[in-house]
Amino acid sequence: MVLASVTCSAPVNIAVIKYWGKRDEKLILPLNSSLSGTLHQDDLKTTTTIVASESFTEDALWLNGKKEDINAVRYQNVLNAIRSRATKLTDKKHFVHIASINNFPTAAGLASSASGYCCLVFTLAQLYGVDGDISAIARMGSGSACRSMFGGFVKWEMGQKEDGSDSVAIQVQPEQHWPEMNIIVLVVNDKKKETSSTDGMQKSAATSVMMKERCAVTVPQRMKDIEEAIKNKDFETFGDITMKDSDDFHEVCATTTPPIYYLNDTSRYIINLINRYNKASGSIKCAYTFDAGPNACVYLPKDNVVEVLSLFLKHFPGQDISTYYRGPKENIAAIESYQPPKNLQSLFSPETTFDSLKYILHTRVGPGPIVLNESDSLIDNTTGLPKL
Ligand SMILES: Nc1ncnc2c1ncn2[C@@H]1O[C@H](COP(=O)(O)OP(=O)(O)OP(=O)(O)O)[C@@H](O)[C@H]1O
Ligand SMILES: C[C@@](O)(CCOP(=O)(O)OP(=O)(O)O)CC(=O)O
């Protein structure tokens, strides 16, 4: 018999101050604080349904329709942490069936582990009636997942305590604070990456000479400065810090032994293009950041969207714009007919173009996890299995 069923969705987040390195591998405690923007669930999200039943014979998890090993240590850690704080379902012997889908590529550097673990923990917390902070539980699934617990701009305080109880996510500003903030993701490659973030950061922490200064001096200062910039909606400072932190993070990777390279030629072309564009414009009009993969996330104010998209399409024209550009369709005509000002004309007329982008995703800053309706359930209550 089904005892309870809950379905929720959760967002992806993209860090502007990067988390890289752990002081505790098991609890997932970071060596530095980090800060991110939450991407809108209209465009990227995880949806998870969890059903509890007395007739299930084991806990089980299906990710994108495929059965996963729920005994994997990170899944067990979050399940056990939630169950130890349960206020519901405590008097009935039961198991749970979990079905989850990402509406974007999994394990491709688009932060699926962040939305995935956040959604899992948030949905479990609804099912088991867990109150109070749950970001520290999401953190035990994947560090960056704790920041997806809130909308807007979110920081993950590294904390000091050994048990990790103060290593939690805190909302810096809600999504309504800076609604003009847009994000364009240039999807260079959606294949699974060679070095996972987990492995990469462990190697960097052990070997990169840059780590000490980064954690002790650079990041603490940047955290203060970028929080202030977000508060004041100061895009010039926000963009400057964002690009510097991305550059430094990839420098940390390059100074790791053996070196780790997440960027490819296309990523480096994008970095160069954005730097040239900002310089020619006389101000920072958009800011790139790259996670542990070649895809570019570009933060920019809404007013610059048409110009920046038009610039990207000149250099990376793609085939059919209606599938290549995944964003508000009403922008397409304006992007295609955009005439740049004189000082930018040469940048908009590249000698060569590239077809190395898979697609361009356009989204904005959005809200945190959401409880959905029974009609959104991914599990068939009669069979207890994922719906096809
Ligand atoms: N919807 C989900 N529910 C539960 N777990 C998920 C979900 N989506 C992803 N995961 C977990 O996250 C793993 C992918 O994480 P990984 O760090 O390799 O990729 P990524 O998050 O897409 O990239 P990155 O963290 O570098 O941005 C999956 O193998 C799975 O264990
Ligand atoms: C480069 C990053 O995206 C690294 C994310 O690392 P993960 O959170 O995926 O790592 P684990 O805690 O080992 O699961 C930077 C960031 O999101 O802050």
What attributes does this structure have?
Ribosomal Protein S5, domain 2; 32% helix; alpha+beta; 10 helices; binds ligand DP6; binds adenosine-5'-triphosphate; Alpha-Beta Plaits; 2 domains; single chain
What can you tell me about this protein's structure?
A hairpin with a 4-residue loop joins strand 18 (379-380) and strand 19. This protein folds into two domains: 2-174 and 368-386, Ribosomal Protein S5, domain 2; 181-364, Alpha-Beta Plaits (2-Layer Sandwich). The model has no long low-confidence stretch (mean pLDDT 96). The protein is globular, with a radius of gyration of 21 Å. With 388 residues, the chain is of the alpha+beta class. It has ten helices and 19 strands. Residues 46, 63, 100, 102, 106-113, 116-117, 120, 196-197, 291-293 line the site of adenosine-5'-triphosphate.
Rg from Cα:
21 Å
How is the CATH topology of the largest domain named? Ribosomal Protein S5, domain 2
The sequence of SSEs as H and E is: EEEEEEEEHEHHEEEHHHHEEHHEHEEEE
The level-1 CATH class of the largest domain: Alpha Beta
Ligands: adenosine-5'-triphosphate, the ligand C[C@@](O)(CCOP(=O)(O)OP(=O)(O)O)CC(=O)O
Query: How is the biggest beta sheet arranged?
Result: 6 strands, mixed
Count of discrete domains:
2
Helix and strand content put the structural class at alpha+beta
Which of globular, elongated, flat, extended, rod-shaped describes the shape? globular
